[in-house]
């Protein structure tokens, strides 16, 4: 470790700052979060994609829901709005999550809806 620029003490050049609290949490925190979230989805009947481990799908006779997870961003989409709403409410009862509404921005892409469909840029 080195002293950060702007906070260098020339008289104690071999000293570094001791953090009283971790800046970004534990290294295994994202993995533990994903494990707990994916386990909950699997218990609800979702299946993990073979091609992308962060994609979960639920297919029944009337319901088709897709859940895509990237770190702490979750995209939920499907054909049945009430089933999606039920899923979100269920997840809110277990996890501290917020429903941000319709897709606007995900993984560096902006999403715009129009009469022609969904446009990503």
Would you summarize the structure shown here?
The protein is built from two helices and seven strands, in the order αββββαβββ. The protein is α+β, with helices and mostly antiparallel strands. Strands 1-2-3-4 form a four-stranded antiparallel sheet, with helices on one face. The chain has a three-stranded antiparallel sheet with strand order 5-6-7, with no helix packed on it.
Task: Characterize the structure shown.
With 121 residues, the chain is of the alpha+beta class. The chain has one domain (26-120). Helices cover 24% and strands 26% of the residues. The chain has helices spanning 29-43, 81-94, and strands at residues 47-48, 55-59, 64-70, 73-78, 105-106, 109-114, 117-120. The strands form 2 sheets. A 4-stranded antiparallel β-sheet has the order 1-2-3-4, covered by helices on one side. A 3-stranded antiparallel β-sheet has the order 5-6-7, with no helix packed on it. It is elongated.
